[in-house]
Amino acid sequence: MTAIRHASRALHTSALTVSSVFPKTTTAEYAGAAFPDQTETRWPDLHGLPEIIVTGRANSGKSSLLNAVTGRTGLFHTSSKAGRTRQLNFFRVGPQEGKLVLVDAPGYGRRGRASWGELFEEYITTRTQLKRVYVTFNGKHRLNEYDEGMLKHLSEQMFAGTDGGKQRFTVQAVVTKGDELPSKDFLNELRQQIWDYAPLCLPPIVTSSRMVPPFGIDALRRNIVEACQG
Ligand SMILES: Nc1nc2c(ncn2[C@@H]2O[C@H](COP(=O)(O)OP(=O)(O)OP(=O)(O)O)[C@@H](O)[C@H]2O)c(=O)[nH]1
Ligand SMILES: [Mg+2]
Known about the structure:
Blueprint: H1 2-14, H2 18-21, E1 28-34, E2 51-56, H3 62-70, E3 88-93, E4 100-104, H4 114-126, E5 130-138, H5 145-157, E6 170-176, H6 184-197, E7 202-206, H7 217-229
Parallel strand pairs: 2-4, 2-5, 5-6, 6-7
Antiparallel strand pairs: 1-3, 3-4
The protein binds guanosine-5'-triphosphate (GTP) and magnesium ion.
Protein name: p-loop containing nucleoside triphosphate hydrolase protein
Organism: Cylindrobasidium torrendii FP15055 ss-10
Keywords: GTP-binding, Hydrolase, Magnesium, Metal-binding, Nucleotide-binding
């Protein structure tokens, strides 16, 4: 069984191209969830498909971003009220049994909850198929202490538990709500702040899920496919 899983993982990853994962009509389907406050977390078994997870402050536009990435409007539930996503939601993307998995996380910060943070922590420390963590920053706001804490923490966790210093996952910044960015200088400030706290964080991709057509999404799709090839 394990051998079959390894073989199928090799198949999944060898053929990854942007057009094979995200064709004009992208196949994306709900593949399970992991819930906070469980005595033992039950993780969806997705046969080792590569995964990426999207985190960020509550209401920063994570779920809207994933709708844009999959070309949907309501696949990922969104709300103008912070705290809409309350569990880790797994979505398989790509034809047949899927090529990769997108994971939508609850938000952190003043409007987040400790148990959501614990679930995220368990995910990033144990999920071996995790390839890249995407951290979203609302283009209207400066980083706050929660963002700084998350960036520092991810910088440590990237290498945690690996003897030879092998990186367990990479971290990519994404500026959301780019339609509301006050200025280019503000973006440069955000970029600098991110690097101050996470020097290895990949430079921000600027996006807007609200613009028609959405902005920066092709770059993000390419980035996701590249992350999942590794
Ligand atoms: N202006 C603008 N608003 C956006 C954009 N993307 C999302 N929003 C709005 O931001 C709000 C929050 O969006 P969500 O996608 O639910 O944010 P989230 O980070 O998933 O929120 P939680 O799950 O509550 O943490 C909604 O009112 C969205 O319409 C964008 O690109 N531009
Ligand atoms: Mg959400």
